[in-house]
Amino acid sequence: MTKTKKYLFVLSVITLTFSSCKKEKITLPSVEEPAPPKTRVYYIAAVEQVWDYAPTGMDMFMGTPFDMNDSVYAVNLPTGITPRIGRKNIKARFVEYTDTTFTTPKIVSSEWQHLGMLGPVIRANVGDSVIVYFKNNTTINTSIHAHGLLYDVNSEGAVYNNGAISGASIAPNGKYMYKYFAREGSGPGTNQGSSIVWLYHSHVAMDESDLYAGLMGAIIVSKKGMGDDNAKPKDVDREFVTLFMVLNENSSSYLAQNITAYCPGFTNPNPDDFAESNKKHTINGMFMGNLPGLIMNKGERVRWYILALGNEVDLHTPHWHGNTVTFNGTNTDVLELLPAAMLTADMRPDNVGTWGFHCHVTDHMLAGMTALYKVQ
């Protein structure tokens, strides 16, 4: 074939290809632009309220009235040799409001009823700024200390020799504006998924009496390009946040008030009398299967954010009956938690039913660190 014929042949192939492309419309895959960085604003107050660890008044995990083991933690004994405060206690919680007037609490949707005692979820995509307008509506000094996010010392919300001139301890009726930034290190690492979880909590007292009062919540940060406009991970259908903690009411700022309110027959009672009964073995501040809202559909992409806080007793092993999760590339149905652990695990539930979810430490399970989750 001569050189001229070769050129003509190549030209005809190109022409035919171009002609066929014109007839068949070529659609290139769309590339979704990452959500632009935002400043996300929250209005959160610390408030006091009577908290019920078991609002149904029974052991829902077993489906029975409180038994002898349950009664130690759940039944009020205002008189007698061994006083017990029981399942209701004065506590403090973080509550989200609609604006800086702090008059209208934000409605908690049904899918987040499972947060229980926990404060609102604070969300960000990597690259976002976060502002929290905070008001202390309690009778104790409180703060907000955030894990994982970038802040300066005046937004650290912790009392120690750090040079802070504000923000570390907010007095009753006081207000403060905390400023944070979700840097690259705030989001998932290379081998992690599209979002990870961090803790926030009050950090005023070194004995953590303000933390044991109930002031804690979760922060969720999504990877850049993987979070939607609301900073929710795009590849997840349903999210659950669960915090395992032995809430020791003997270490709470409200111990004296609770003794006065629920055991009025005792004069100058010894706090040691409540040493065991005041250890509330909880998931999100509820025990004995009373935590509501852990409901999902078969086949959904479910992300579990698993947290812990507390003391030496807070060595927990969350266990899912009936289904498995993937954690760090490994399939399992049990995770290991230390105090202040923050883990993220994924589930694709394939087993329909109502299943147990509990700490597998025997003593914790017997004391009521149990819940139920449902796959429908």
Describe how the helices and strands are arranged.
Blueprint: H1 3-23, E1 39-52, H2 68-74, E2 88-97, E3 122-125, E4 129-137, E5 145-146, E6 175-181, E7 195-201, H3 209-212, E8 216-222, E9 238-248, H4 255-262, E10 279-283, E11 295-296, E12 302-308, E13 318-320, E14 325-327, E15 330-332, E16 342-347, E17 353-359, H5 362-366, E18 370-375
Parallel strand pairs: 1-4, 3-8, 9-12, 11-18
Antiparallel strand pairs: 1-2, 4-6, 5-7, 7-8, 9-10, 12-16, 13-17, 14-15, 17-18
Task: Enter the CATH topology name.
Answer: Immunoglobulin-like
CATH architecture: Sandwich
Mean pLDDT: 91
- Terminal residue distance: 70 Å
Q: Strand tally, please?
A: 18
The ordered string of helix (H) and strand (E) elements is HEHEEEEEEHEEHEEEEEEEEHE
Number of helical elements: 5
What Rg is obtained from the alpha carbons, in whole angstroms?
26 Å
Low-confidence stretches: 3-24, 26-31
Biggest β-sheet strands, sense, barrel: 4 strands, mixed
Q: Please report the first level of CATH classification, the CATH class.
A: Mainly Beta
Beta-strand percent range: 25-35%
Report the structural category: mainly beta
Q: What count of structural domains?
A: 1
Q: Biggest sheet, strands in spatial order?
A: 2-1-4-6
Helix content percent band: 10-25%
Approximate shape: globular
How would you name the CATH homologous superfamily? Cupredoxins -  blue copper proteins
